[in-house]
Amino acid sequence: MNSVLPLILAMLAVTDAAVQVQVNPGALQIGNSRNLNIRCSHVRDKVPTISRLSYLLISFASDAEKPVFRYLASVSSVDGLDYDTTAAVAGNITRGGESWLSLTWSYPLFSRVGLYKCEASGINLSGAARTVSHIVEVGGVRHLDASLFDVIQNQSRDFEQLKTDEERLTASYLSLKSRFDRAKEAHFSISAAHNGRRYYLSSISNVLVANEVDAICALYGGYLAEVDDDAEFEFIKSFLTPYTQYTGVLCSGTDEALENNWIHANSKTMVKYIKWSPSDSRGGRSENCLFFWRPHGWFMVDWVCQQGYANYAVGYLCEIPE
Ligand SMILES: *[C@@H]1O[C@H](CO)[C@@H](O)[C@H](O)[C@H]1NC(C)=O
Ligand SMILES: *[C@@H]1O[C@H](CO)[C@@H](O)[C@H](O)[C@H]1NC(C)=O
Ligand SMILES: *[C@@H]1O[C@H](CO)[C@@H](O)[C@H](O)[C@H]1NC(C)=O
Q1: Which residues form the signal peptide (predicted)?
Q2: What is the mean pLDDT of residues 184-203?
Q3: pTM across the whole model
């Protein structure tokens, strides 16, 4: 298809309802419109001017007063798409239904303002060549000067890139989170909320190392449970009561460094509160960690910080702020 052809055809063309041009957006805002789409379509009428369509063609004239149309694109039943434009071009000639040709520019500039002509060409029922056409005008408002528009266009492109990156990151985050949640559900029983925290009771383990389980609590955004007052102790005690399969549950508090000087290993603060079991005989230098102890009604005892607990069913309790 060469650009001389539409000029000749333009002289022969008549306007016909069967050929339509849609423009989106109707009024171009240079600097604000992301896309400009020109869509030319042809639907066969009941009494068709054109009974067999051979091609659709879009041409453009920048001067609406003295239009000189320049070829942009065409779609033909024989040759398919042909174009001479930076727009994204799509189209199809169909026998019975709608035939169409569509041009889309990203970040349209002021040079897109003008007249767009859509021509449909084919033969009528007597076999004579017919061309019908429709012209639309695209007006434009310049919102930004060109250099600023350039910046915005670049930023817009960067933003698209970021969005794609973010979608990819979100997808891997969600997959990681779902694996993490599955591990959490498999390993912990989780309390109701109390003062903006939840308590995670680990499953029973044969080996506990206080430092290591503190790190596991940290993985879930918390620390070994630090009991600060009666209310917190009572809440934890009610939470633990149904778990009769446990002998003891490790919580925060150690006097490993200095006998009877109980500190929280995570926050390095003094332990303010210990609900000692009245029936526990304190273990001295060999027992430097705090446990809730079921045989003593879940009151607290001091016991060894790390070893295998073959004869006991023990777990640990994390405190996780929400
Ligand atoms: C064109 O339309 C025909 C029939 O409607 C369809 O089979 C064909 O896939 C279409 N081609 C394109 C490129 O859209
Ligand atoms: C086909 O077009 C020719 C030339 O314009 C015209 O003379 C003829 O009447 C048309 N036939 C029909 C069926 O419209
Ligand atoms: C926009 O991006 C193009 C190509 O990446 C670059 O050449 C141009 O300098 C950029 N313009 C501005 C204003 O950043």
Answers
A1: 1-17
A2: 92
A3: 0.47
